[in-house]
Every structure is written in C-alpha cells, then in structure tokens.
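Q: Joint fold for the lines below.
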Amino acid sequence: MNTRKIRVRFAPSPTGLLHVGNARTALYNWLFARRNGGDFILRIEDTDVERSEARYETQLMEDLQWLGLDWDEGPGEPGEKGSKTKDKGPNGPYRQSERQQIYTKLTKKLLKDGLAYRCFCTVEELEADRRTAVARHQPQVYSGRCRKLPLKAIVKNLDAGKPFTVRLKVGEQPLRFHDMVRGDVEFASETVSDPILVRSGYENLPGMPVYNFVVAVDDALMGITHVIRGDDHISNTPKQVAIYQAFGWKVPQFAHLSTILGADRERLSKRHGATSISSFREMGYLPEALINYLALLGWGAEDGRTETFTMPELLKAFTLERVTPSPAIFDFDKLNWLNRHFMKTASSSRLARLAWEYFGFMLPEKDQASDDVLVWFANLVQLFSQSVDHLDQLPAKALFMFGFNATEARAKEENAEILAADSSRLVLGELANRARAHYEPVTPEIFKEWMNAIKEATGIKGKELFHPVRIALTGTHSGPEFDKLIPLMEQGSTLRLGVPSVRSRIERFVGV
RNA sequence: GGCGCUAUCGUCUAGGGGUUAGGACGUGAGAUUCUCAAUCUUAAAACCCGGGUUCGAUUCCCGGUAGCGCUACCA
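A: Joint structure:
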C-alpha cells in the first residue's frame, strides 16, 4: 500500500565519539536501506550548541566510512579537521542548526491554525504542578492552563513582554504507532499532554525549538519512511506522532532497537572500557568484525545458526522482522572471536598494512620500506596474528623478533627454572656447537637435523629438548612453530631491521 | 510516583501448545603440537514467579517481580 521509496536516516548529535550503540543503529538503518533499494540519510542533530563540536562531526563521518556505511544524502564528505562541508542531496540543510527558519515558519503555521498555543506558565509554576502530581500519584503532565487562555489575556501577556513557550494541542484520542520490532504501541493522550514545541521566547525573538519538534519536522520534510532508532525514544514517539497529525503528515513506520548494556547490565558507557568506534579501530579491530558483531547484537539469521557474515551476506540476510526487542549485553569475547575469524580470512598484505603503525620504531617509515621488508613483515603478521585478538597486540608478541636480550631471557623466573636443569645445559651446549660450525643460513630442514642429532647424542627429547632451545631463540617457552619462525629470523636478519639471525641468537644466549 | 519497553544456558540467540529446548561465544575435559594459539572431538549449562485457557504450557492471556527507558523550556 505504500509504494514510496524507502528512506531512512541516522541522526547523531556531534557531542562525542560515535559509540557502538549508535553505530549499530546506523548499521541497521543502512542495511535496511541498501537491502530495499532505499536511501540512507545522515542528519546532524547539532542544536545543542553548548556540547556540539565540529571535530566530532568530522570524526563521526570518518567512523561511518571506516565501517563502510555510506550515505546518499547528508553533509558531504568529511572535511579537513572540523571544517563544515557542503550538503549532498536535495533535502537539506542536513544540520539542524541550519534549519531554524523552517521550524519558525512551521511554528507560526501551527499557531495560526489554532493547533498550538502560547504558554506563559513559569518554570516555578510547572515545577509546583509536577510536585502535586507526584504526591497524588498522577502522571506528571501539563495542566493545560494556558490552552484556554482568552485572547484578551494573551494580548495582555504579550504587551507585558512576558516570555512564552509554544505548546501543541493534543487531542483526546490515544496516540498509537506501529513498531516493527515490538508491534503496536499505544499511549493514552492524557499521559502525553501538551508538549512544548518551542522554548521560551518572544514574538519577535522566537525561542529554540525542542528536540521532539525538530525530529518530527525533519523526518517528515526529508521524506523519512522508516524511523529506526534506540528504544530510549519510545516514550518520545507519541509526542512526535501528535506533531505529524497536527500537520497532517503521514506517520512513518518505527523500529525501536534495544539498548546495549555492559556486563553489569547498566547501559554501555566509557566506564565499560572501549566503546567508541574509533577506539576499536585504534586497537586494531577490523571493521568487518565490528560490523558482524554489531549485526549479531540484537538480530539473528533465519537459520538460527549462521554467525559469521561478510557485508554482502549480511545484506542478503538482514530483515527488521528478525530484530530482537530485548536488551543485549556487549560481549568483548565474542567480538574478539569474530576479529580472529576475520584476521584469518583477511589477506596478509592488508593485515600488514594495518599492523604497520603499531610497530613504531621497530620498522622504517612505511613508504621507505623495501619490497623485501614489506614481504617479510607480511609473513610475520600472518604468523603472529594467529595468536592475538586484535592487531595492537602484535608488537608485544613479536618483539623478540626485532631484538634479543639474552640476559633478560635468562632472568625470567619461568625460564630460569627450565634452564637450571642439567638436560637444558646439555642441549644448549650441543646446539651451540652446531651453530658455531655453521655459517650458512639456517633452514628449517637444517634446524630439524640439529634437533634430531641432539636428541640422538643426549637422549633428551620432548619438552626437555625443545623448551630450552625455544628460550635460547625467542626468550620465552611459548610461540609459533619453529618451521615458520626459523625462516622469518633468517630472512629478517638480512633486512637491516636489527633482527638477529638464528646463529647470532644462539651465540648471544649460550656465549661463544 | 506515573507511563512505556523487556524477560530462553554466564553471554548473544533459535524455536515454539506435545521438542532429547537447537546454534555460537566463553568455560571444563580429551586429541594434536616442544609450547602458546589454531583446529577437531566432547561435557556441563537456560525457558523469572504465580494464576488462568487447554487433555497438555517454556510458548497464548492476566497479574507479580526484576531490569531498563521516558517522565526537562536535553538530544
């Protein structure tokens, strides 16, 4: 029955970093739009002048782009740090701060049509009403005192220069809307009462419109067909519906997404650790892992078992009908699992490119690195990324590749214990003998021969054999397989990165 | 206080009037490996409570409880 093109919007306020909750809202909007051939609109709700900052707006757009969520209409592309950009799309402006005249014009219309009225009640009066309402166990709503103010009284107040707010006249009928996630929702009109549309102001100096007014106006004027947002807006929705009705606008479909909670069941916040998209990026999470995880937080595939999705797969599978209404706790473990999954499927060159920055002084400037270094590093990243949750953990794991402190390795408590054994001394002695007599690069084959020979000569095998050798080479008794490690060390030692060769490691550790 | 939303393993979820209540993360055990990670196998683990409807409710209805949200001239 509704053949209008689907149009959805994501409307963040630039008062801080984009966090995972909002990012999920953006994702669901984007998926819904893309899947149904609709438009995804980005609108900046920057009416809170105190807290809004242009740099957050830029950051916001960069975060969305990083996630792969592009918009059809909105404030252009992110500009130079915090500079405002030109609108893209025919329904702008897309910043609420630039839409004031629109709101003022519509307020006048409402007033003229008798659908809204000036309210001269003071904050103190309102506060008193509220207190009595609570005492009487009644809803705290506006009494409607100024609704029936005779014209004479209004003129008198205006002449006296009294400031006023503008309130909407809400009718008797219950306010209903359909929620695609929760079904039909209904509010009795007396629990909504006459909401303020415009803050205190004067005839010649109108006040600022309030949020509920501007969202409804913007959504309607921008032709939004589906409002997908957080469930903290459910209680606002009847007010917005009343506004739509006053203007005679078609009420959109709503879909209210559940809250994302921390492990303590409180709303997820900075207190729970990293929650902003940019912090996840900085930690070396892959965008596709975050997207996949966010998709799973409050939605499940139809087959009830698929957990990993690429973006095209998500696009195919996602429907609003399968979004769950109950709140979800953010599970860092599962995110980590997904990130490990996507690190395995990512190409080693991409991983290497992303991981480069975490290695700081260990590596040369990226654009000055030779191809040999690039290839070597890609191999290193591929090997070590198997044992990390996210990329920024890589340098700690691979540190021993770049330098080797024999004294420190010996001093470590768990190492000292192993090294103290007679068998270890024997093994390392044998190893040193072989290394001394060997001037060619060590291959995994040669290394294997050494180990076999040592095993024969000493009768030591298994842990007693490998543990001390691993410590001598890497400084710890855990790490990747020697087959992979040995070539990496040998190749690395030719690259002027300060990577010690196998032989030099042994020499440094055992002594010459 | 009022209004609203929500309720299946620890977590994310599937399911739905009769099921061995399924999957995934995490956890335990085992296999593998020199070790860690990975991988494979395997185990433990859930329908908030009380009424009603019904031959039968975890599923439908009502109530309670709990959590969360809104209750602003914030967004």
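Q: Anything notable?
A: Residues 406-510 of chain A form a domain with the Arc Repressor Mutant, subunit A fold (CATH 1.10.10.350). The two ends of chain A are 86 Å apart (CA to CA).
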